[in-house]
Design brief:
Blueprint: H1 9-53, H2 70-119, H3 126-155, H4 168-179
Helix pairs in contact: 1-2, 2-3
C-alpha cells in the first residue's frame, strides 16, 4: 500500500531554518576567526615594515611553518629585502670607513708639510697668509675624517679601534721619509 506524504509548508520552513541557521552561524564564526587571524598577520607585517622604514634593518617577520599563502610569501620577500638592505648598508659603512681611513694619512702628511712650509716663510707676507689658510683647510679635512672614523667606530659597536700589531720598522721608515730632508 502506497503511503501519501502530505507537504506541510510550515514544517518544511521549520526544518529548513533548523538546518540553515546553525550552518550560517558556524560559517560566520569560522569566517570571523579566519579574518581576525589574517588581520593579526597583516598587522605584524605592517609593524615590521614600520620598523624597517625607521631604520631598524634587523627587523624580520616571523616565519610560520606550514604556511604557503600570500601573506607568508609577502613576509618571506620582505625578509629577503631587509637582509639585502642590511648587507648593503653594512658594506656602505665599511667602504666609508675604509675611505676615511685611507685618506686620513695623506691629509695628515700634507698638514705636516704645510707646517714645515709655513715655518720657512717670513711672517706677515702674502705667502705666509696663503700657507696659513691652506694649513687651516687641511687640519679641517683631517678633523672631518677623524669624525667619520669615530662615527664608523661607534656604529660598529666599538668604543675604540681594535688593537693590531704595528711594524715599528715600517713606522720609523715612514716617519723618516716624512720628516727627512728632501
Amino acid at each position: 500500500e502506497a503511503r501519501v506524504i502530505e507537504f506541510d509548508p510550515q514544517e518544511f520552513l521549520g526544518l529548513l531554518a533548523l538546518s540553515l541557521v546553525p550552518t550560517v552561524l558556524i560559517s560566520l564564526g569560522l569566517g570571523a576567526a579566519l579574518a581576525a587571524r589574517a588581520r593579526a598577520r597583516v598587522e605584524r607585517i605592517e609593524q615590521a615594515l614600520g620598523r624597517l622604514s625607521e631604520g631598524a634593518l634587523d627587523t624580520r617577520i616571523p616565519a610560520e611553518p606550514g604556511r604557503a599563502d600570500d601573506l607568508a610569501r609577502i613576509g618571506a620577500r620582505i625578509n629577503r629585502m631587509a637582509e639585502a638592505q642590511e648587507a648593503a648598508t653594512e658594506a656602505l659603512k665599511q667602504v666609508s670607513a675604509d675611505i676615511a681611513h685611507d685618506l686620513k694619512t695623506p691629509l695628515q702628511r700634507m698638514t705636516v708639510l704645510l707646517h714645515d712650509l709655513r715655518e720657512g716663510l717670513a711672517p706677515g707676507g702674502r705667502e705666509a697668509g696663503l700657507a696659513d689658510r691652506a694649513l687651516a683647510e687641511a687640519e679641517g679635512a683631517v678633523a672631518v675624517f677623524q669624525g667619520l672614523l669615530r662615527i664608523a667606530q661607534i656604529e660598529g659597536g666599538g668604543t675604540r679601534p681594535p688593537s693590531v700589531p704595528v711594524d715599528l720598522n715600517a713606522l720609523v721608515a715612514s716617519m723618516a721619509e716624512l720628516y727627512g730632508p728632501d
